[in-house]
Amino acid sequence: MPLVNQTIVTVKNHSLPSRFLRRDVRIDCFTPSMPVKQDEMSLLLINDGQDMEELGLADLLTGLYRQNNIRPVLCVGIYCGEDRRNEYGTAAVRDYKGRGAKAGLYTRFVLEELLPFIRAESGISEFKEKSFAGFSLGGLSALDIVWNHPEVFVKAGVFSGSFWWRTKGLDEGYIEDTDRIMHAQIRKGDYYPGLKFFFETGTLDETEDRNKNGIIDSIDDTIGLIEELEHKGYNRHADIKYLELKDGRHNVATWAKAMPEFLKWGWGR
Predict the structure, then answer these.
(1) β-bridge pairing 9-18 and 2-4
(2) Tens-of-pLDDT digits for all 269 residues of the chain?
(3) How many CB atoms lie under 10 A from the CB of residue 213?
(4) Residue 114: which region, alpha, beta or left (left: phi > 0; alpha: psi -120 to 50)?
(5) Interatomic CA distance for residues 9 and 31, integer angstroms
(6) How far is CA 83 from CA 89, 105, 217, 263, in A?
(7) How open is the CA angle 223-261-72, to the nearest 5 degrees?
(8) Per DSSP, what are the bridge partners of residue 106?
(9) Cα(222)–Cα(229) distance, rounded to whole angstroms?
């Protein structure tokens, strides 16, 4: 049923039983209410959908549509479960503490349960394009799914991504060049034409600085990931957008400031 009455954006919630995750997954669908041809509607999945009210997504979308700043995009916020640290992460490799154990199941939920449900519920058999975004660990999850399924998704949006995700602890012989999991995936992977990437960090995301180079880890890890993408063949200007917010923090308020830039980057007119 509708959560809010919007002249531009209609918000509906659903509960989807998942046999992969063995839980009911709540999703909120933010649909532009103006007439849209099926082949003009894009789809954006967003991890940590429970934060979309605090982020103010409905109002952000409404403002952008009223100003004719973005093309039609159906946004679907996916609520995380209680076992977030296992459902999010990288599907192929667990981190050094064994976290991310259900990331493969989460990927199957998205591909085999969520996407068919959205197509049936929206009445749109094929979207113009599909993208995935997330925040912190949810951002790592989104990028992992996009990177490993380029036949499905074309864009990834990562806000304060947990790119520190690693196979060894800092006191277990950790080597930065080889042990960061997402960096290694990109380094070993193929170049997929058409993929595009948006990254946001804040200068106050954290205070940790593993390698003592004067750059906090969240920024250092993100820049390192961008460099891996460039080495793979992606163009820094055409395929990648990096937004660094001065005094930006690891919180929803900061991500809300970055979200309009992401939406205009991905679906701007």
Answers:
(1) antiparallel
(2) 334 444 589 999 999 999 999 999 999 999 998 888 878 999 999 999 999 999 999 999 999 999 999 999 999 999 999 999 999 999 999 999 999 999 999 999 999 999 999 999 999 999 999 999 999 999 999 999 999 999 999 999 999 999 999 999 999 999 998 999 999 999 999 999 999 999 999 999 999 999 999 999 999 999 999 999 999 999 999 999 999 999 999 999 999 999 999 999 999 98
(3) 9
(4) alpha
(5) 5
(6) 11, 12, 25, 29
(7) 125
(8) none
(9) 11
Which DSSP state fits 259? H
Neighbours of 231 (CB within 10 A): 11
- Sequence-separated (6 or more) residues with CB below 8 Å from residue 82: none
Within 13 Å and on the Cβ side, how many CA atoms surround 30?
Answer: 22
pTM of the model: 0.95
**Helix H or strand E segment including 155:** strand 155-159
**Residue 153 corresponds to which tokens in the numbers above?**
């998704």
Across the beta sheet with 130-135, the strand order is 2-4, 9-18, 23-32, 73-78, 42-47, 130-135, 155-159, 196-204, 240-249
